[in-house]
Design a protein that fits this description.
Elements lengths: L32 E6 L17 E2 L2 E2 H11 L4 E6 L1 H4 L12 E6 L5 H6 L16 E3 L14 E6 L7 H14 L3 E7 L8 E4 L5 E5 L13 E10 H8 L15 H8 L4 E5 L12 H21 L3 E2 L6 E2 L4 E2 L4 E2 L4 E3 L3 E2 L4 E2 L4 E7 L4 E2 L4 E7 L4 E2 L4 E2 L1
Parallel strand pairs: 1-4, 1-7, 4-5, 8-12, 13-16, 14-17, 15-18, 16-19, 17-20, 18-20, 19-21, 20-22, 21-23, 22-24
Antiparallel strand pairs: 2-3, 5-6, 7-11, 8-11, 9-10
Length: 388
């Protein structure tokens, strides 16, 4: 049942400022930058038929979080590298990304191969010799024809990444005149991450993957976040010199940074403010940990904007929910989908709202579950109501 009121009173509310507009965003620069999102991984540890990057955290697929953060930073062109399995669903399945171009990585041979697979969407860029990729069938995005000066590379399984962190990284690389840059993070437990090696004067030397690292190198806690900046021509000019001479027999993107040092190109290391922005997800436990971070950030943002949460640690809020000033959210409340709550509303404890609109001053009694419904301004829904 869905009731349409005469005036719900919720127009113009803003969702949590997780994807804020940035006045100094990269879209204002004359330098053209594209984001390359690596999303083709199988995610075998997820134990799922669903591609890893399409698993949801706080209401959005992980891939959506990454693309939205690129957009928030003003990186208006995104190239998403997907697997043949993901491509089989067709372009229609990806229409929610009108600013993105999709490239299909036909063979999975490491991060270097994944980035090389973006070449069909990079006009004027030479195809790396080992690359085997194509544009998604029926791809007609006009952004495909734009040749970028720079690229920023992100993993599609890092949903906690923020536009602000990306913006600061690119700004630092540009200010230093870098040909390539790596975003570093200090991690208390660096297990599983590539270690960043530097010289005595703290200049970049190399990145060594954990499986290839010596015991001494494994003690280093300055790690690769997986985010790489590069001048497009410089990066793809190095690709043909990549070789799969490692324990995995893969082409490592990080080897391009070492090659750049050998060729006297400028490589910079920029350390991020919060390593949790770049937490990767490989299994369900890590997905739950990242979701907890996302939800906490959104609730904190709403509280700063004038919303009261009673026992916020017990509440759950998804990415596209909006809440008005002076509303109160009770313990254990769950706001899902595109729920919109007006000003001065009261949501009781252990309430679930899914795709619900509450007019200003509405009250939802404790223990209620309401889905796909519109509540009039000032209306009172009794406790333990079930409306869907």
């Amino acid at each position: 049942m869905h009731r349409v009121p005469s005036n719900c009173g919720v127009a113009g509310l803003s969702r949590p400022r997780y994807f804020p507009d940035m006045s100094e965003s990269l879209s204002k620069s004359k330098t053209v930058i594209s984001g390359i999102v690596l999303a083709a991984g199988k995610g075998t540890r997820m134990k799922s038929d669903l591609p890893k990057v399409l698993h949801k955290a706080a209401g959005l697929p992980m891939l959506d979080w990454v693309v939205r953060s690129l957009q928030a930073a003003g990186i208006e062109r995104q190239i998403v590298v997907i697997s043949p399995t993901m491509a089989a669903s067709g372009r229609e399945a990806w229409r929610r990304f009108p600013s993105a171009v999709f490239c299909v990585q036909k063979t999975a041979r490491g991060t270097g191969d994944a980035v090389a697979s973006a070449y069909p969407a990079l006009p004027g860029i030479k195809k790396p010799g080992f690359a085997n990729a194509e544009l998604l069938e029926d791809e007609g995005n006009p952004l495909q024809a734009v040749q970028p000066d720079e690229v920023i590379i992100c993993a599609g399984d890092t949903p906690a990444i923020t536009g602000q962190a990306l913006l600061k990284f690119v700004a630092a690389c540009r200010a230093s005149g870098a040909d390539l840059g790596v975003l570093a993070m200090r991690v208390a437990d660096p297990t599983g991450y590539g270690r960043i090696l530097t010289s005595a004067d703290d200049k970049f030397a190399a990145i060594v993957e954990e499986r290839d690292a010596s015991p001494e190198q494994r003690n280093i806690n300055r790690c690769n976040s997986g985010v790489i900046f590069a001048k497009a021509a410089s990066l793809f000019g190095l690709m043909d010199e990549l070789h799969p001479n490692n324990s995995q027999g893969e082409y490592y993107l990080t080897d391009c940074l070492g090659l750049a040092v050998q060729k006297n190109l400028k490589v910079v290391v920029h350390e991020c403010d919060d390593w949790q922005d770049f937490l990767g997800v490989n299994d369900r436990s890590q997905l739950a940990a990242v979701e907890k971070i996302l939800v906490r950030r959104m609730i904190e943002s709403l509280m700063k904007s004038g919303v009261t949460f009673h026992n916020p640690e017990s509440c759950h809020v998804e990415a596209d929910c909006k809440v008005g000033v002076d509303s109160e959210i009770g313990p254990g409340a769950c706001l899902e989908g595109r729920t919109v709550i007006g000003r001065g509303c009261k949501v009781g404890s252990n309430v679930t709202l899914d795709d619900v609109e509450l007019g200003d001053g509405a009250v939802i009694g404790a223990g209620s579950v309401v889905r796909n419904y519109v509540v009039n301004p000032g209306e009172n829904i009794p406790p333990l109501s079930m409306i869907q």
